[in-house]
């Protein structure tokens, strides 16, 4: 990760794609307090050089701890237009990219908020519809 300050970078959503939402058949359960849910997240970054887009595919699994089962899974790909795009350094030979830390944090905050809203909507009509989904800041989950 590049730790440069990026004060004049513009980012905006170019697309949001819900690739998967699955609610699984689980044993009958009653939530045992607010600590009975576990949110497991995975993020994969990718780029589209031609369109000058930076993207992240995020997968979130909601686990009911008391019955040790996954209740649902949501997979969302978020693509962002980034200007200037050359702040992302691409090494094709090593299949790597260096992304400014500020950009990663900003995009992660946006993505986590978006995924939280999609998950809230998809959980309507389920036993989890009234659960308050956690607010998580990128600086709490990403290395510095």
Describe this structure in words.
With 144 residues, the protein is of the alpha+beta class. It has a single domain (10-141), classed as SecB-like (Bacterial Protein-export protein SecB, Roll). It has two helices and six strands. The strands form two sheets. The chain has a four-stranded antiparallel beta sheet with strand order 1-4-3-2, with helices on one face. A hairpin with a 4-residue loop joins β5 (89-91) and β6. It starts with 9 loop residues before the first strand and ends with a helix.
Q: Which terms summarize this structure?
A:
single chain, 144 residues, alpha+beta, Bacterial Protein-export protein SecB, four-stranded antiparallel sheet, 2 helices, 18% helix, disordered N terminus
């Amino acid at each position: 990760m590049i730790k440069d300050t990026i004060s004049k970078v513009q980012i905006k959503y170019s697309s949001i794609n819900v690739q998967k939402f699955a609610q699984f058949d689980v044993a009958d359960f009653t939530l045992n307090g607010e600590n009975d849910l576990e949110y497991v997240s995975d993020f994969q970054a990718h780029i589209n050089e031609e369109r000058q887009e930076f993207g992240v595919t995020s997968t979130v699994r909601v686990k009911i701890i008391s019955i040790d089962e996954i209740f649902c899974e949501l997979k969302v790909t978020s693509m962002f237009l980034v200007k200037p795009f050359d702040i992302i350094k691409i090494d094709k030979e090593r299949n790597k990219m260096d992304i400014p830390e500020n950009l990663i944090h900003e995009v992660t905050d946006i993505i986590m908020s978006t995924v939280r809203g999609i998950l809230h909507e998809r959980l309507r009509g389920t036993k989890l519809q009234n659960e308050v989904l956690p607010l998580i800041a990128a600086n709490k989950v990403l290395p510095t």
